[in-house]
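Minutes, project check-in
Item: structure for the 540-residue chain
Input as provided by the requester:
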Amino acid sequence: MEKQYLFIDGEIITVNDKDEIAEAVAVKGNKITAIGSTEEILDLKDKNTEVIDLKGKTLVPGFIDSHLHISMYGTNCVSISCKDKDILSIDDLLQKIKKRANQTPKGQWIRAWGYNENSIKDKRFPTKEELNAITTEHPIIISRTCGHISVVNSHALETANIDRYTPDPDGGKIDRNTKGELTGLLLENAHMKMFAIASFSEEELSDAHKIASEHFAEKGITSLHDATGYGLENLRCLQTDSKKGLIKQRVYAMVGALNDAQNVVKHMTHAGVFTGLGDDKFRIGPVKLFLDGSSSGPTIWTREPYTSDQENYGIHYFSQEEVDELFIPAHEKGWQITAHAQGDAAIDMLLNTIEKANRLHTRENTRHRIEHAGIATPDLMDRMKEQNVVPIPNPAFLYEYGDGYVKNYGERAKTMYPMGAYERADIPAAIGSDCPVTDFNPMRGIHAAITRRSSSEQVIGEDKTVSLLQAIRMYTLHGAYASFEENIKGSIEPGKLADLVLLDRSITRTDLDDLPEVLVEWTMIDGELVYQKSKEGIQV
């Protein structure tokens, strides 16, 4: 007989149609069986029941991060983090790299991630020569925090067969100085190609997935939409590690790659499968392309020039015809389609394709997506609504990168990740962190969605804020909607999966600015605990 758990005397944020807050909930096996008052739920008690007193703390549906990169985050955990508090200058970073090189067999990669030239004391990237001075026997790659730019040493360039005569790839740039010599700086597709070369073994990826899953569970993430990393081999590894239980979260896997995504999309369009294949633990999601660059780079593709540079409109990867040729057949064959589209010009391009696809091959309930949908102006939002498009914004970006947005995009920054505008337009925006680009803690994303404050306390688009309950809905039920799974998860309702998160306090009684400090007491997936801060109390 399945054991029953009755969670009583809590603040149960149901995220149901009425946004009800209940006192208690019953769970049997891997399903929620009832919600209501403590008195009502206690009436369900039998000899096979354990009663858990929540003591007024908040229970929420498991958080669904609708856009992150689990493989990239996990492998970053075993690489040098430029976000470490003791790395304040380029010299600090070089010392870390030197130490790692001394511990690493010759010929193996030295990797660092999270570099931000705007927050480092030197206000620039390291040079190829500075990296060469550390080691010529290891390839080195330092990835910028956005994941779209890197700097490498000569060994890495040689490994990738890049020299001063190598042409820039489509949608990318190999930086050169005034003499035509390589600086080691790689942007967009040039970086993506190098990143693919500096890939990891299957064993390293499995270790990375286990680490990442544990970290995500600690913050209450029970489902994740993986936004691709290292191509189809990575997809196979994700599925394998999900089946083995190394990845505890439910996975909705986008199909693409950081490098050569167009050929992955072509291949999968004709492979005989399509979006939705899988089960409650691992499911195939949309095919995905990259249409433009990084919002913080800045390299996004805009309709008007950057406020900070009147000659710059950013970088785009494909022509309209190329996107149509890749995505319209995918739509016809049953795929959900999506693309990284940050700038308004990139969003416009993707919407053009979606409109053509829906017109040429009518399908019900397509729910095509836009990853990030950065500069989401009112005219673009109108088109999203008309086509039933699900945008995946990243409000936490406003906290970490918002000051740069104002500098580079001016008034357009107020339209970036416009959570409140989506809410008023009844567009089911689902929040993603884009981890490791920024903090994956849902509390950071929720706080940013409510306040729209940058780290310097600048409010960017005050009229685009949302309430606490609206932000939670975007991190739960809307995420389930984005993967066609709103009938089985995303809210605390009878019949849904028991993916639950207990917070360490009442979130509705928490001061707004204390939200990022809210911790998770325990995380439950499928009725089983996958993280527990304390061994006292619930024993599932």
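Outcome recorded: The chain has a mean pLDDT of 95.
No further action items on this chain.
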